[in-house]
């Protein structure tokens, strides 16, 4: 089965987003290594924050049908380098998480994500309220089953 690799900073909400995509409500735990689950590859946040791990991300992306870059709407900085998505041989899309958080700045999060992902769809999501989760899952299922 094809997979989607999910990449984002420590605490960006990747594992919580994955739980929401699978319809699970229990709290997520810190991802310590690459986790392969069904149609998803969950990556540790350190992999996107440290350029030493970029080669590992690029290599792992060859096992994926697409890459999902995750940006936390409460963060004021980007943890991806400019044009980051161009390093992958598969299509990339984006997700902004925590859109219903009191400190969320959705427009700023989209701006930050666009630096790394100039092209490609961006989905606005909240694992807390499930907003945008079904739409993102539908898109990811299209990719996985294409």
TrEMBL record:
GO molecular function: ATP binding
UniProt keyword Phosphoprotein, yes or no: no
Protein keywords: ATP-binding, Nucleotide-binding
Coiled coil: none
SUPFAM superfamilies per the UniProt record, alphabetical: P-loop containing nucleoside triphosphate hydrolases (SSF52540)
Pfam families cross-referenced by the UniProt entry: PduV-EutP (PF10662)
Keyword presence, Nucleotide-binding: yes
Gene3D superfamilies per record: P-loop containing nucleotide triphosphate hydrolases
InterPro entries: EutP_PduV, P-loop_NTPase
Protein family per UniProt: Belongs to the EutP/PduV family.
Name listed for the protein in its UniProt record: ATP-binding cassette domain-containing protein
Organism: Paenibacillus anseongense
Taxonomic lineage: Bacteria, Bacillati, Bacillota, Bacilli, Bacillales
């Amino acid at each position: 089965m094809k997979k989607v690799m999910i990449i984002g900073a420590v605490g960006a909400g990747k594992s919580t987003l994955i739980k929401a995509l699978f319809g699970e409500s229990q709290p997520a735990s810190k991802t310590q290594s690459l986790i392969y689950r069904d149609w998803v590859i969950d990556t540790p946040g350190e992999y996107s924050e440290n350029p030493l791990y970029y080669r590992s991300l690029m290599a792992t992306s060859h096992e994926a049908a697409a890459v999902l870059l995750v940006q936390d709407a409460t963060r004021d900085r980007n943890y991806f380098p400019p044009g980051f998505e161009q390093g992958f041989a598969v299509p990339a899309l984006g997700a902004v998480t925590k859109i219903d958080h009191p400190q969320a700045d959705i427009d700023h999060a989209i701006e930050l994500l666009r630096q790394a992902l100039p092209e490609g769809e961006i989905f606005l999501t909240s694992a807390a309220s499930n907003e945008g989760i079904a739409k993102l899952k539908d898109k990811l299922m299209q990719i996985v089953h294409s």
